[in-house]
Amino acid sequence: MGRSKQEIITFKVDKALREAMRGIPNRSEFIRTAILRALDSACPLCQGTGSLTPDQRRHWERFAVSHPLTECPDCHALYLVCGETKAGRSQ
């Protein structure tokens, strides 16, 4: 079995970000980890864009009718509650 070939991706940063990263010993590993965490936390509907297409919005509005956003009384995080079950704490 061969190793998968790695690809180099570069990007520009402003001076403030460059200075903030100056003391990080392995910047490449730090950036890879940060990107993977961000991708893992991206909204599954908008995929991290922060906005919905008109079709996605239409589907979301139908879904949201029976799946309201609820605030956790303990940590104050918002989460969806299925209208098919009683509203309450997330499991």
Tell me briefly what this model is.
The chain is mostly helical and 91 residues long. It has helices spanning 15-20, 27-40, 54-65, and strands spanning 69-71, 78-80.
**Unreliable sequence segments:** 87-91
Give me the count of strands: 2
**Structure classification:** mainly alpha
Order of strands, widest sheet: 1-2
- Helix count, DSSP H or I runs of 4 or more residues: 3
Number of domains: 1
Give a written overview of the molecule:
The protein is 35% helix and 7% strand. The chain has 91 residues and is mainly α. The longest helix has 14 residues, at 27-40. It starts with 14 loop residues before the first helix and ends in an 11-residue tail after the last strand.
Features:
single chain; 91 residues; mainly alpha; two-stranded antiparallel sheet; 2 strands; disordered C terminus
List the helices and strands and how they pair.
Layout (H helix, E strand, L loop, with lengths): L14 H6 L6 H14 L13 H12 L3 E3 L6 E3 L11
Antiparallel strand pairs: 1-2
